[in-house]
Design brief:
Helix content is about 20%, strand content about 35%. By secondary structure, the protein is an alpha+beta fold.
């Protein structure tokens, strides 16, 4: 057993570093992490030449301002553990960014001039909290700020420059700011006052707090449907709100006029989940369609009710925005090709200087019959390799998320080292319909592992995977499923690697941020005191004494989502039986925004596998 606080962890994978020092060569897997990346730039509605994006150019993910007219780029934030939460005001004058402590997600909003200068407290009078949404007004002085704390639940405040914040909303259940209308006269809120944190209802208010309209598809009973705010029309005096709904078993957009109550259902003939945003003149919608782990874009003309496909390469579209000139910018990648911000007007929008990321191998689609229906898995393996191979089951977090045909440096690193990688979109994943996403309730964790086991059985029977060299790994919810799988399926896995996991569900519930408590109550049907048998059945610590495989755990000591104490409880149980395990603790929250730290963690994981997996 080995433990580390981050300074003395076993690092035998440093043979990679030694090779660099001796030959000047950096391995491809490390280049993928070090190569400069940028997010899809956000731009100011009334100053479209001003943009805000995130980049790791300095080795830490931070916010950058970009003046498109001059080409000047300026780093806005500079913190030891990085910054990614930022919003550009519609007038392009201010950048708001969220200031927490070492990744604990508990803090305050600060703001800085787009052109530079000192940071200032953006919302004086509001105490530190977890963020629950933010919308900025076009006048440059109005903001709607959502907050969440264990004591107050969710509160939403109207903030105007020079005035004390005004509380507009308060409720114990989770909620968040949706959007502020173009003229600042309407505020939309997503809330879960009905107690189901997976399915929001909508409320529209005026700045004085009076309610204008409500929309609730939860209906009660067993068929609760969700709604989400996609944005008000970007037109003066326009009361249309673009929202997402689940009325036909998947996410689709509709236009809701909150003044008249009229709903315009687009009824798009697309098989997957659909999201949308407005074109800047309000005459059309930019449609994003996700289906079977890939994405595509369309333009929908509202007057002619016509859907026109926008040409994009096959792969994953991670974000898109329509510009005032009618062009569309989008962030695209595939498993084989690194991400790039592209434009329909031609070329790459934002290409950071420096090292270019090597590509990787493409994914193969696999469909496996499981206990709840067909399961989609994505498989990568070294070029030219034949099985059976040592195989990594890399399980995504969320759980309401999905793996896609997008570029991922972590899986590519395993492939470089001779492993096959299998990623499973288990029940609970998004992108396969509402019923698939909502299937998790009550038997949390156990349902996902049934699907993972079905794909594991296929991987072995197909000749892809060596049954003696199977690794179960993942981060966040994927880390939780790793620990739960090692205990409930002890003979299925040779090794487990869990990053920022849930390890002791009851302790995690009591220590985690308030919004996640609400989600856990929804998933499990109550609190640990109300449904103790469900928390026990779904908690990895319940099965810790059955774990046979060596276990590697990494954890952020400031993590508000998978707090450190519940991981320590699990580790103590491993220690008590002298189980083979290693623990790596680092000074950050739910993962790290520092490139060197990410590389170190991958090195440690690869090294652990090399030392403990059978040859």
């Amino acid at each position: 057993m080995t433990e580390s606080n981050g300074s003395d962890a076993p690092d035998r994978a440093d043979h990679q570093t030694e090779r660099v020092q001796q030959t000047g060569e950096m391995p491809d897997w490390e280049k993928r992490f070090r190569a400069p990346r940028v997010s899809l730039p956000d731009w100011a509605e009334d100053a479209p030449d001003r943009s805000l994006f995130v980049s790791n150019a300095t080795g830490t993910y931070e916010l950058y301002a970009w003046d498109r007219a001059t080409g000047e780029q300026r780093q806005v934030t500079d913190r030891p553990n990085g910054t990614t939460d930022g919003v550009l005001s519609p007038d392009g004058e201010w950048i708001w960014w969220f200031d927490d402590k070492d990744g604990d997600e508990f803090g305050v909003w600060r703001r800085q001039r787009f052109t530079g200068g000192e940071d200032e407290l953006a919302a004086p009078g509001l105490d530190p909290s977890y963020p629950a949404g933010l919308a900025l007004g076009r006048d440059g002085r109005t903001a709607v700020v959502g907050r969440s704390t264990d004591e107050d639940g969710t509160t939403i405040h109207l903030v105007r420059g020079g005035e004390a914040p005004v509380e507009l909303y308060r409720h114990r259940e989770s909620a968040g700011v949706g959007d502020l209308s173009y003229d600042g006269s309407l505020i939309s809120v997503e809330h879960t006052e009905h107690g189901d944190a997976m399915h929001s209802a909508l409320r529209v208010m005026r700045p004085d707090g009076t309610t204008v309209a409500e929309l609730d598809d939860t209906r009660g009973g067993t068929e609760e449907l969700g709604l989400e705010v996609l944005g008000f029309a970007p037109v003066e005096g326009d009361t249309r709100l673009l929202i997402g709904h689940q009325r036909r078993g998947r996410w689709e957009p509709l236009v809701w006029d909150v003044a008249t109550g009229e709903e315009t259902d687009l009824a798009l003939d697309l098989p997957g989940d659909v999201s949308a945003e407005w074109f800047p003149d309000g005459s059309a919608l930019l449609i994003a369609h996700g289906f079977e782990a890939r994405g595509e874009l369309f333009r929908y003309d509202l007057a002619e009710r016509r859907l026109e496909k926008i040409s994009t390469p096959r792969g994953a579209v991670s974000g898109a925005t329509a510009r005032p000139d009618g062009s569309v910018e989008y962030l695209w990648s595939s498993a084989a090709q690194p991400p790039a911000v592209r434009s329909t007007s031609g070329g790459v929008v934002l290409d950071p200087p420096g090292m270019k990321s090597p590509g990787s191998v493409p994914v193969e689609d696999v469909w496996v019959e499981g206990p709840g229906g067909r399961i989609h898995a994505l498989v990568q393996k070294p070029a030219g390799a034949t099985g059976p191979l040592p195989t990594v089951f890399d399980i995504h977090g969320g759980p309401t998320w999905h793996d896609s045909d997008s570029f991922a440096a972590g899986p590519a690193a395993w492939v470089d080292h001779g492993y096959a990688v299998v990623r499973v979109n288990y029940r609970g994943s998004t992108g396969y319909g509402r019923a698939w996403t909502d299937a998790l309730k009550h038997r949390v964790g156990l349902i996902e592992l049934e699907d993972i086991e079905a794909v594991r059985a296929w991987a072995v029977s197909s000749g892809l995977a060596d049954p003696a060299r199977l690794i179960l790994t993942g981060g966040s919810w994927g880390g939780y499923l790793t620990l739960l799988g090692l205990g409930t399926q002890p003979d299925a896995w040779a090794l487990g690697i869990a990053a920022v996991p849930v390890a002791d569900y009851v302790t995690a519930y009591h220590d985690e941020m308030e919004a996640l408590k609400a989600m856990d109550r929804t998933l499990l049907g109550g609190t640990p005191e109300e449904v103790p048998e469900r928390f026990e059945a779904s908690s990895p610590i319940t099965y810790v004494d059955r774990v046979k495989a060596p276990v590697y755990i990494s954890a952020g000591v400031n993590d508000p989502r998978c707090p450190i104490q519940q991981i320590e409880n699990y580790v103590k149980r491993l220690e008590s039986r002298n189980a083979v395990h290693e623990v790596y603790r680092y000074d950050a929250g739910h993962g790290s925004l520092v490139v060197d730290e990410r590389i170190k963690q991958i090195r440690l994981e690869l090294d652990f596998a090399a030392r403990h997996l059978p040859s």
